[in-house]
Amino acid sequence: MHKLVYNELIKILKSGKNFILIMILLLLSIVFSFAASAEWESESRWYSPGGSTHSLYYDQLKMELDMGLIDPEENPVRYARTRLFVDVFEKVKLQAGDDMTRLIWTDQVLKDTLLSSPNYQIAYYAETSPYGISNADDYRWRNNLYEMGEISEAPQVTPELKAKAQAGIEAAIQMVKEGAWRSYYEEQIKKLDDPEQIQYYQDMLAHDDIPNGGSSRDFQWRRILVEGDLRLRELARYRILNDIETYVSYIPEPSVLSLGMTVNLTDTPSEGVSEFWPRLARSLNALIVAALISVVMAAGSIAKEYSTGTIKFLLINPKKRMKIFWSKYIAVLFYSVCMTALCFVFCFLMTGFFAGGYDLNAVFIDVCRGEVHSSSPWLYIWVSMSDQIVSILISTTLAFTLSAVCRNNGVAVGVGIAAELVSQFLLVLGTRVLPVLTRAFPYANIKLTSIRYGAGILPYQSFTGALLNLAIYVGILLWIARDAFVRSEV
Amino acid sequence: MEHYLEIKHIDKFFGKKQILKDVSLEVNSGEVFGFLGPNGAGKSTTIKMIVGLLCIDRGEILVCGENIEKHFEKAMANIGAIVENPETYNGLSGMINLQMAARMRDGVTQERIDEVVELVGLTKRIHDKVKKYSLGMKQRLGLAQTLLHRPKVLILDEPTNGLDPAGIKQLRDILKHLAHEEGVAVIVSSHLMSEMELMCDRVGIISKGEILMVKTLEELKSVSRLNTVLFKYRLKDTEKAKEVFAGFEYADFVLCEQDRIEIRVPAEGMEDKLEQLNEALVKAGCGLLEISIPEERHLEDVFLELTGEGGEQIA
Lengths: 490, 315
Ligand SMILES: Nc1ncnc2c1ncn2[C@@H]1O[C@H](COP(=O)(O)OP(=O)(O)OP(=O)(O)O)[C@@H](O)[C@H]1O
Ligand SMILES: [Mg+2]
Fold this sequence. Notes:
The structure holds 2 protein chains of 2 kinds. By secondary structure, chain A is mainly alpha-helical.
């Protein structure tokens, strides 16, 4: 079997097309890396769904503190923030030694450091939303943050306030779970003071306007409920020292919320923030190119054999057709993996080149479900890549199946690429129009990481469900392809 | 003699159209078997069924005693075949093509590959891309591919296509050597009758999906369809001769023009009958000038005789 796979790999790798495709990959990786390093840098700091990396140069900040570059009297906000980071990193260093990338270090330690430190009074609250808030709606998040940033008089969070808010949230969540939209509307009317909005809800009640499970308004009211609850915002503020306020934002997506983000909203020294990793994450959009290349190769895998007639040579060997089929699939997958890896390497090198250095000692700190985590930035990159890899797997398998069934390279390439490109669009359309059916669509399930953290694009998506869905699709596709290949008459 | 290939009563349908009708054949170890038939007769179809490219609708095929459908891998291990055209990966060099073929089989070493390359005369160009090969070179490469694993049954569909005279002779020698010295069963399909005549020990003729006959070359040459022999006369007075021939029931007119007459005489008791005929001709004073001895029949004549005189539309 390994010999068959080896043969298939030779066919793929030694084809003239392969060289051209790799060149394209290289070129586009450069373009994407360059684009990722361009102007919008400072603005886009907030713009990473699922989290934002703000890894810091410990050395830099430590030096600023030690040398007294920051005067606590003159610039208390900045001083406090820098102090916070240095404390955190000090702790990290204690555990990990100088090499922070190989950090093995319990979250609890960092959390304790932060939360028990007499210098900082941190109230942090982030509630996990089980209702699947739209992942793509970063704009709103950003706005929320800026809004909060403008509030200068943040109230002290007392245990009573916290408990009250907690109860309120739970009640609201209960309402959504039970679909008790009436109670929700009534609750809203009681709470609101904008007459227009009150009128809106009253109209809804009067007309028995039930948000049904499929409608976009249904989606809307769940979101309003969770996201728009003012009490959450109240809770989301917290103070550091007496006159310094920064905020931990309430972000409905619980997956990744960067500590750096919460603390250095505006005026953390920019040299303190790693340029490299967030840029790399954006450069990795180039993975779409790897996906397309994999699709092209998968599409040719069987169809080309037919069009050149070599299928006859292939099938008259004393090997069961099944074996030949699987060897082809394995080779195609292997190629996809290679292209993905190659794309990563290109992007990595180019990003470092454009960013003027490789920030390998950075530490990625994030807050997840109310817990502070520190991890290797590699992990962060891996998380952002993994969804792409799943998508590549699906598209490649689709192209491969079409190749086996239609025996036509053009059709397989066309549909494979279309699937990769148009699926996202279809998905958005589907979530608006037919969210129930859209769940069955494999591309609705490829963002496994988000789904795992309860932030899938559709309500009630579960990780196992998504995984199962994908497995079933791949299974069905391969079954069809195998059947077509084994039965074909040449 | 051992049957290396046995085809037992196979039928093949494409849709509703029956392409092969009850085809049976045996090919023995140590012989070159010529598989002849006009375009669309079903030669390639039969070959594809032997190598498992097409499924068998009815009947069975055994290769060295193994059923091709039930024990595919075992049966195919004994076969080397080129179906229709030598198919190779054009973007790769001849050598890589051969190495890939070798990986598909057990026990083919690099030495064996070099040996076969030498045999088919491609040593100098083997590292070129196949794209740059001429048709004949591709044929040679295809042949090399089939020979790598020393198959017991070698099947070549129109192998002489594109070969130069020297190449054809070389191929002929290779095939004869394989069959007669190494005991391989060689099956060659072709339209080139003169070629087949030089190459084959036995031929089978197929037309419209049916096997018309299977005979050794000697049998073929001496016997004709109706077991009659053709004689050509040159005479002064053909009219008179016609009357004379009319007196003999067994003399069958084929042609009569100017000073020529061709007749057929049954092969059985031919000499006596000929004596009677000639005597009568002389007696009648027809002015007998010349009798040509029956020519050695060529495969082509038999082929055309059996499959129709040509110029027909493809079935
Ligand atoms: N895939 C197919 N579908 C339908 N009919 C087919 C198919 N392949 C072959 N045929 C038909 O089967 C018949 C036999 O074809 P085959 O290729 O076996 O002929 P052949 O004897 O090899 O002829 P040639 O000398 O031209 O190579 C032809 O009438 C052809 O039209
Ligand atoms: Mg043919």
